[in-house]
Design goal:
single chain; 269 residues; alpha/beta; UDP-N-acetylmuramoyl-L-alanine:D-glutamate ligase; 9-stranded mixed beta sheet; 9 helices; 38% helix
Length: 269
C-alpha cells in the first residue's frame, strides 16, 4: 500500500485581507506555500487595497474571528501562529485570549499603518496591544513607525533601535525584531531577547516595489518556528527570504508593487 504523505507543519495567520494580493492574508499564505508549510487563515478585516493605498476597510465581528480560530485549531491543530491587522481593541483582546490558550509559538506583527501611511489600528486599541497582545508573543516584529506608536520612542539610528527594543520587551514579548529598513544606508534589523543581540544586515536593493515586506517577514518567521527552529535561526532564514523577495519585487499598478513571494521556487527551476 502507498505510504500516506506526512502532514507538514501548520501555520495559522490571523490578519486582514489585501485585495491587491501583496500583503495581509494573501502575502502570508503565499509565504507559507513557498516555505513548505500548510497555511491556514482567520480573517479579521476586509480591505479595498491596491498599489496606491487603502481605499476602505471593514472589520469582522469578534465572534466571527473567534469562530474561525476555534474551527481551525480545534480540528487541525497548529504549529505556529502569526498575527497581523487587528484594527480594534475588541479584536486585539479576542485574539490575545485565544493565543494565550494555544500551545504554539506566536509571531505578532503589530500592524499600525500600511506601506502608504494608511492607519490600520485604532488609537484606542494601542493599550490592548501593549497589555494583552504583546505579552503572548514569542516574537514581535514592529517597524519604526509601529515602535513609535507603541513605545513613544523615535528611532533615528542603531542606538535608538536598542532603546526601542528594551521598551518593546518591557511589554512582554520573549523576543523582538526592530525593523530598521527605513533608516538611511543598508537595511539592518535588531533581534534581541534582552540578553542576546543579533544585528541582521542585508544589502539595500534599488527596488521600490516592497509592498508586503512586514507581513512576509513575520509569516516566514512563523514558518521557521513551526519547523522547530529556534528564534535566531528562524529570524535569520526569514530575513534572507524577504531580502530575496524584495530583490525580485515587481511593478504592478501605478504605485508600489509587491515583493515576489515565489522567487525561490522560480530560481530552483
Amino acid at each position: 500500500m502507498p505510504i500516506p504523505p506526512a502532514v507538514p507543519p501548520r501555520v495559522l495567520t490571523v490578519a486582514g485581507s489585501d485585495s491587491g494580493g501583496g500583503a495581509g492574508i494573501q502575502a502570508d499564505l503565499k509565504t507559507m506555500l513557498a516555505l513548505g508549510v500548510h497555511g491556514m487563515s482567520v480573517l479579521t478585516a476586509v480591505t479595498a487595497q491596491n498599489s496606491l493605498g487603502v481605499q476602505g476597510a471593514w472589520e469582522l465581528p469578534a465572534e466571527a474571528v473567534r469562530a474561525q480560530y476555534r474551527s481551525v485549531v480545534d480540528d487541525m491543530g497548529v504549529s505556529a501562529v502569526k498575527t497581523g491587522m487587528l484594527s480594534s481593541a475588541a479584536l486585539v483582546e479576542t485574539v490575545a485570549a485565544l493565543l494565550a490558550a494555544t500551545d504554539a509559538p506566536v509571531v505578532v506583527d503589530p500592524v499600525g499603518v500600511s506601506k502608504h501611511g494608511d492607519a490600520l489600528l485604532a488609537a484606542e486599541a494601542l493599550e490592548s496591544v501593549r497589555t494583552r497582545l504583546l505579552p503572548v508573543a514569542t516574537v514581535a516584529t514592529p517597524n519604526l513607525d509601529e515602535v513609535a506608536q507603541i513605545t513613544g520612542v523615535t528611532v533615528t539610528d542603531e542606538a535608538g533601535m536598542r532603546r526601542a527594543a528594551d521598551r518593546m520587551l518591557g511589554h512582554g514579548p520573549r523576543w523582538v525584531v526592530i525593523k530598521g529598513g527605513h533608516l538611511p544606508g543598508d537595511p539592518v534589523d535588531l533581534l534581541t531577547d534582552g540578553s542576546q543581540e543579533h544585528w541582521l544586515r542585508a544589502p539595500r536593493h534599488d527596488n521600490r516595489h516592497t509592498h508586503g515586506t512586514g507581513c512576509t517577514l513575520a509569516s516566514a518567521i512563523a514558518c521557521g518556528l513551526a519547523r522547530g527552529q529556534d528564534v535566531p535561526t528562524a529570524v535569520r532564514a526569514a530575513k534572507a527570504y524577504v531580502t530575496g523577495a524584495i530583490a525580485a519585487g515587481f511593478a504592478l499598478g501605478a504605485g508600489i508593487g509587491p515583493v515576489d513571494h515565489g522567487w525561490q521556487l522560480r530560481n530552483a527551476r
